[in-house]
Specification:
CATH class: Alpha Beta
Strand order of the largest sheet: 2-3-1-4
Radius of gyration: 14 Å
Order of helices and strands: EHHEHHEHHEH
Number of helices: 7
Helix content: 40-55%
Strand content: 15-25%
Shape: globular
Largest sheet: 4 strands, antiparallel
Structural class: alpha+beta
CATH superfamily: Nucleoside diphosphate kinase-like domain
Bound molecules: inosine-5'-diphosphate, magnesium ion
Number of domains: 1
CATH topology: Alpha-Beta Plaits
Distance between the termini: 32 Å
Number of strands: 4
Length: about 140
């Protein structure tokens, strides 16, 4: 059965800083994602804390939120069949050293924290994350 889904993608500060926005967007298009919405923003630390609230008990939470709010990011709504899982596959493992060849994190990621991209991990979280950035 086909299911057209939307998921939230973020190009993180390390990738924006290295001018990888267009290259990463091309990867999404090449993999049959439609970029429905897109904006370049910079988060306040408090906003990053809200976005990553699920990780608030993790030892890396503070660094993670400082990092996501450290520079401009690009947030996008991607649409495709099975977009949530497809994007997770395209991104690769959280730790770039463990990500498979051809994945975005293998190609562009620097380290487990500077891993270039975020993608929603479930359809439910995709809806929550899309609302977080694009609810008007
Ligand atoms: P994901 O981005 O692959 O979904 P999550 O477990 O949801 O991975 O973690 C969110 C983000 O937190 C990761 O993308 C990564 O940047 C950071 N992170 C995850 N685990 C660690 C860690 O052990 N040390 C430092 N940063 C981490
Ligand atoms: Mg996650």
């Amino acid at each position: 059965m086909s299911s057209l889904e939307q998921t939230l993608s973020i190009i993180k500060p390390d990738a924006v800083e290295r001018n990888l926005i267009e290259e990463i967007k091309q990867e999404f298009k090449k993999n049959n994602f439609t970029i429905l919405k897109e904006k370049k923003i910079k988060l306040e630390k408090q906003e990053a804390e809200k976005f990553y609230k699920v990780h608030q008990t993790k030892p890396f939470y503070n660094d993670l939120c400082s990092y996501l709010s450290s520079g401009p990011i690009v947030v996008m709504v991607l649409e495709s069949e099975n977009a949530v899982l497809k994007n997770r596959e395209l991104m690769g493992a959280t730790d770039p050293t463990k990500a498979e060849e051809g994945t975005l994190r293998k190609k562009f990621g620097i380290s487990i924290d500077k891993n270039s991209v975020h993608g929603s991990d479930s359809l439910e979280n995709a809806r929550i994350e899309i609302d977080f950035f694009f609810k008007d």
